[in-house]
């Protein structure tokens, strides 16, 4: 069934909606995860950063497991369903762990970590399957429509992530439950979206084109590679040289399998430099963690009006509010009125709450004690600054000492707009191309596996962040420059590698080779049924 007379199958609508809901679920949970670590579990910046990146890495290592289950055992459709159930369970466990009345802090940590592990296996396991399953819905000749599908598919990813990173922080901060910020609700809404994603995916079952699994691909591939290595080691001096080291497996394994493994290897080699892109891209998350850590470790209420996401650091001074607190050295309690905001500072060095106030000149501020009333001049309270005002009783009245803990903002927040434009444009072009390339260059039996290989570049990027950024202990700006410089170098290397890569058409294997039977073995030259065909002889398109 096609959409409105086009070559787009109706089934992809269910897949795109499923992906939107799943990405809302995933990024919605991650949007408040660092706040949860720092403010709810009371972890420090280093531990929060390490766990965050470890979780992200696990989410992008597990696609290999999902791909192997799909291509070798259950097929893509059933794999998505079963692992989505695991995904939902993980969200539910994570949400329960955020309820203060459920056990003590140890229980909260255990449930949170268990939930994150289940989420990582769920989201990682379905990642390569959903994209590849969407590609499977198109007929072989509709390559242009399939290419556009991957663009729409990635648009749904970004739409879900953008919407969720706006909604869930609002649910956490503006909705109060259990006497504080409602993390249970902020995690529960993403859980509900994942349930919707699962229901939508199942609803399209009757419309899907479902390719059966190809058997235990991984075991077969590993045995083929192992045999080729052993055979080459034993006979390399006695036998004539071969054009590719995998051809040493021809005595036992079908040429088609060997050609497919060669195709996968050529793409995986091309992926080697790519993790550096994600290492730089994920620096924005690290900066966000440092900002949140600073806010909650230094000024408890300071960050409650802040909702920023991106490559920021407290010393970059891009905050758009100013905050103020009072320290009262007087022997009487003092109530201070700054504009429309009320502060209370207890006697004998009591400290008021940190409250954001509008920018402006504050002269004649009223300070009331039980016995008297005073007026003080605070002067200008500027954007982005944090002020501590010390009040003291002198013979001539109440005096003050105003200290600027964080200097007023001197960089407009709009300067982040071009940064995000370039970062987003780079990610969109990079990711859409990678998804489509991974699908188009993979043999039918290994499409999910190669999708998983593409996703693993993200995992290794997070590992690089953990090793370099956390181990080196550099300043934030130094890390940015380091990763940016490394990415420039890697881009040059990748450009050279890409120039020498030539596209192949995996579907041509069906035309070149006749189907191999289970009993067929290429043990002797008399039993060979197919002529040797190298990848260089296959129909090609253009260089990258």
Automatic annotation (TrEMBL):
Biased composition (Basic and acidic residues): 516-531
Subcellular location(s) per record: Membrane
SUPFAM superfamilies documented for this protein: MFS general substrate transporter (SSF103473)
GO molecular function, one term: oligopeptide transmembrane transporter activity
Swiss-Prot/TrEMBL keywords: Membrane, Peptide transport, Protein transport, Symport, Transmembrane, Transmembrane helix, Transport
TM ranges: 24-43, 50-74, 80-97, 109-133, 153-171, 183-203, 263-281, 449-468, 480-501
Gene Ontology CC terms, in alphabetical order: membrane
Family: Belongs to the major facilitator superfamily. Proton-dependent oligopeptide transporter (POT/PTR) (TC 2.A.17) family.
Entry protein name: Solute carrier family 15 member 2-like
Gene of this entry: slc15a2
């Amino acid at each position: 069934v096609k959409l409105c007379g086009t070559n787009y199958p109706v089934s992809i609508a269910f897949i795109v909606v499923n992906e939107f809901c799943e990405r809302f679920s995933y990024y919605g949970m991650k949007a408040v995860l660092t706040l949860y670590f720092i403010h709810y579990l009371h972890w420090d910046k280093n531990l929060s950063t390490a766990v965050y990146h470890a979780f992200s890495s696990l989410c992008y290592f597990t696609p290999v497991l999902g791909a192997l289950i799909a291509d070798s055992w259950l097929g893509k459709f059933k794999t998505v369903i079963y692992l989505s159930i695991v995904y939902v369970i993980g969200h539910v466990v994570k949400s329960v762990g955020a309820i203060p009345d459920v056990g003590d802090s140890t229980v909260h940590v255990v449930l949170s970590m268990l939930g994150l592990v289940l989420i990582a296996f769920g989201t990682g396991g379905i990642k390569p399957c959903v994209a590849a399953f969407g590609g499977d819905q198109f007929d072989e000749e509709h390559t242009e429509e399939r290419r556009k599908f991957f663009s729409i598919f990635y648009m749904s990813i970004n739409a879900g992530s953008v919407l969720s990173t706006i909604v869930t922080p609002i649910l956490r901060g503006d909705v109060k439950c259990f006497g504080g910020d409602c993390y249970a609700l902020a995690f529960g809404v993403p859980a509900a979206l994942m349930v919707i994603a699962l229901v939508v995916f199942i609803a399209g079952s009757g419309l899907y084109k479902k390719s059966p699994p190809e058997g235990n691909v991984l075991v077969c591939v590993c045995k083929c590679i192992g045999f080729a290595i052993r055979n080459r080691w034993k006979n390399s001096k006695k036998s004539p040289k071969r054009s590719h080291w995998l051809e040493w497996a021809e005595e036992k394994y079908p040429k088609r399998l060997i050609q497919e493994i060669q195709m996968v290897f050529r793409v995986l080699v091309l992926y080697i430099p790519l993790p550096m892109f994600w290492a730089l891209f994920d620096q924005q998350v690290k900066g966000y963690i440092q900002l949140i850590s600073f806010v909650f470790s230094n000024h408890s209420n300071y960050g409650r009006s802040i909702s920023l996401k991106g490559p920021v650091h407290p010393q970059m001074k891009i905050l758009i509010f100013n905050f103020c607190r009072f320290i009262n050295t007087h022997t009487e309690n003092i109530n201070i009125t700054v504009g429309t905001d009320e502060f209370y500072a207890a006697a004998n060095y009591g400290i008021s709450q940190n409250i954001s106030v509008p920018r402006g000149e504050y002269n004649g501020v009223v300070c009331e004690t039980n016995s008297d009333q005073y007026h003080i001049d605070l002067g200008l309270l500027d954007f982005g600054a944090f002020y501590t005002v010390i009040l003291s009783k002198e013979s001539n009245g109440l005096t003050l000492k105003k200290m600027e803990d964080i200097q007023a903002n001197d960089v407009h927040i709009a300067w982040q707009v071009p940064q995000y434009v370039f970062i987003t444009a780079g990610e969109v072009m990079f990711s859409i191309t990678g998804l489509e390339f991974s699908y188009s260059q993979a043999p039918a039996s290994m499409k999910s596996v190669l999708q998983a290989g593409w996703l693993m570049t993200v995992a290794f990027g997070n590992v690089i962040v953990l090793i370099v950024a956390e181990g080196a202990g550099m300043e934030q700006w130094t890390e940015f420059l380091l990763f940016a410089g490394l990415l420039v170098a890697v881009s040059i290397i990748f450009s050279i590698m890409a120039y020498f890569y030539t596209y192949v058409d995996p579907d041509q294997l069906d035309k070149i080779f006749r189907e191999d039977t289970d009993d067929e073995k290429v043990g002797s030259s008399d039993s060979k049924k197919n002529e040797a065909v190298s990848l260089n002889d296959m129909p090609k398109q253009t260089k990258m």
